[in-house]
Every structure is written in C-alpha cells, then in structure tokens.
Design a protein that fits this description.
By secondary structure, this protein is an alpha+beta fold. It has six helices and four strands.
C-alpha cells in the first residue's frame, strides 16, 4: 500500500557498489572496480573509519573513467531549477527535497510513474542542464546509474521521512534548503476533505506502521 516514494541517488563515483560503508548493489559490473574491495549488500553495521573511506575513494578516482566531482552552490541551484521544471511538467507532488554535494533526496507522492521513471526523468534533465551550462563535460555521467527507492505506506512514515530529509543538510553543517516545488505534507491520503469511505482511506485508518 504505497502512498509515496523516498528517492535517493548519488553523484557519479561518490558511492560505488563496493563502497566500504555498504551499498544496495548486489553485483559489481566492472572488474577494475571489483578489485577495490569486497561487496557488502546493505549498510554495514560497523562503519569504516574516515581514513579507510578516504583511501578507498583515492583508489577509486584513479580507475574511474570520469572525474569524481561534487556539487557547489551553482550546480545545486541549477539542479533545483531543473527539478522544478520536471516536477511541474509531470505533475509530481513533492513533499521534500535536498540536493547535497554528493547525493540527492526527494519524497514524491504516488503517481502514475513508477519510482524508477521519476528518478530517470529527474536525472536525465539535470544531467543535460549541467552539461549545457559547461559545469560538466559533454560525456560526463553526472549521476551514478539508477538509485535507491523507499516505499512509504502510511502518513506517519511520510512525516518522519520528510523531517529526516529536511534536516539532512543541517546534519552536515549546511543550510536548510527551501525549494518552490516542495509542498507541505497535508496527510494525503488522509488529508482534510478526503472521502472517509474510500477503500484506500479505510485500509490506512486500520493500519499502523511498525
């Protein structure tokens, strides 16, 4: 009973499949990348030291095909502007968004597009914009392929993830972000004025997230 998606993806090269922190990848397609370290599915219970993570990243930069670059203020603003256009074009309802130096979080309400298509639309448009503005080379991928999606099944879960996303920049010493395409969460589909007799509303009222 999905009501919203939590979409996450990273900048190119910033979180490889065999990153020592763990990842959501089950395979490493490149033999060269595979030699950098062991694949671990999911977040490792014991996280690597900063020294170990930095060493992994240095090795990765030497073998990756394209430069590993993070986003500065100009890139973040450009990406946000593109996201605004894509969200309006496809009529997505976005409840939270942060564009970090090396990754992105968005929370988007259930839509006719699946999570994968939303991610692809947002990635493709922002990739083209950064290239056209000369912020990345014409063949630079900009983003890691694909991403991660969380399936949110209750308004309480949506509220919790909205809060998490909004506080993400502050956690890393950055300013909280505000985007014109982000709407305050209204409790949908249990929002004011909803039909209390709809099957969807009845099911949600009877469900409590664990």
């Amino acid at each position: 009973m999905v009501i919203a998606y939590h979409l996450i993806w990273t900048a190119y090269g910033c979180w490889l499949p065999n990153d020592p922190r763990g990842s959501t990848s089950r395979t490493v397609a490149s033999d060269i990348i595979a030699e950098l370290g062991e694949l671990h599915y999911g977040r490792r219970r014991i996280q690597p030291t900063a020294k170990k993570l930095q060493a992994f990243r240095r090795q990765a930069k030497e073998v990756l095909k394209f430069p590993v670059t993070t986003f500065g203020r100009r890139e973040v603003d450009a990406i946000g502007d593109v996201f605004c256009g894509v969200i309006r074009e496809h009529q997505y309802t976005c409840y939270a968004c942060v564009i970090m130096p090396d990754h992105v979080h968005l929370l988007i309400r259930k839509h006719k597009h699946q999570a994968e298509q939303m991610t692809e639309n947002l990635q493709n448009a922002s990739r083209l914009r950064l290239r056209s503005m000369g912020m990345r080379d014409a063949d630079h991928p900009v983003w890691a392929k694909g991403g991660w999606k969380g399936f949110l099944d209750h308004p309480d879960v949506v509220r919790r993830i909205v809060h998490y996303i909004e506080k993400n920049p502050v956690k890393w010493g950055l300013s909280q972000q505000r985007w014109p395409f982000v709407q305050p969460y209204d409790g949908w589909p249990l929002h004011a004025g909803h039909s209390p007799n709809s099957p969807y509303a009845r099911r949600l009222r009877g469900y409590r997230p664990g």
